[in-house]
């Protein structure tokens, strides 16, 4: 699976509250509406700038905070194809995979906002098309790639009737 998109850059410690602001928790049953506010507390302009296929690049500990799965769900609903970070909070990482949002660990210092990236999920290779550089990301395990390819854990189980890993 190869993904292509433009980088939206964020720093370290982007929390689930930055991604899905707690003051908007009343929208948790209306995810398309909540997605209009995705990452609003880190970049108030983000939801208006993001385009289908774009890529979020964070620093260390991306997705820390509460275990709400709304955070990766609304990133995906906003059209983001992949999240890259130096490291992820464990629960956010698992939630991302479970909702079908690829998450790769890589040194995001190499990317600038607006860079065009091409990501080969199977190989864990990221090409910065803008800068003409290739980087190796921590490859995703085959079981997680299968879940991503099926569109998330729910779609995976619907498709196979059980875990087909």
Q: What would you call the shape?
A: globular
How far from one another are the termini? 17 Å
How is the biggest beta sheet arranged? 7 strands, mixed
Question: Uncertain spans, ≥5 residues at pLDDT below 50?
Answer: none
Give the total of beta strands: 7
Helix content: 25-40%
Structural class: alpha/beta
- Number of DSSP helical runs: 7
Topology as H/E string?
Answer: EHHHEHEHEEEEHH
Rg from C-alpha positions? 15 Å
Q: Can you list the strand order of the major beta sheet?
A: 4-3-2-1-5-6-7
Q: What portion of the residues fall into strands of 2 or more residues?
A: 15-25%
Mean residue pLDDT? 95
Task: Please characterize this protein's 3D structure.
By secondary structure, the chain is of the alpha/beta class. It is built from 7 helices and 7 strands; from the N terminus they run βαααβαβαββββαα. The protein has helices spanning 16-19, 31-35, 46-49, 70-77, 90-98, 142-150, 153-160, and strands spanning 2-9, 55-57, 82-85, 103-105, 116-120, 125-128, 133-136. Helix 6 (142-150) packs across helix 7 (153-160). The longest helix has 9 residues, at 90-98. The protein is globular, with a radius of gyration of 15 Å. The relative contact order is 0.18. The mean pLDDT is 95.
Brief overview:
The protein has 165 residues and is of the alpha/beta class. It is 28% helix and 19% strand.
Provide tags for this entry.
alpha/beta, 7 helices, seven-stranded mixed β-sheet, 165 residues
Q: How do the helices and strands line up, and which of them pair or pack?
A:
Blueprint (H helix, E strand, L loop, with lengths): L1 E8 L6 H4 L11 H5 L10 H4 L5 E3 L12 H8 L4 E4 L4 H9 L4 E3 L10 E5 L4 E4 L4 E4 L5 H9 L2 H8 L5
Parallel strand pairs: 1-2, 2-3, 3-4
Antiparallel strand pairs: 1-5, 5-6, 6-7
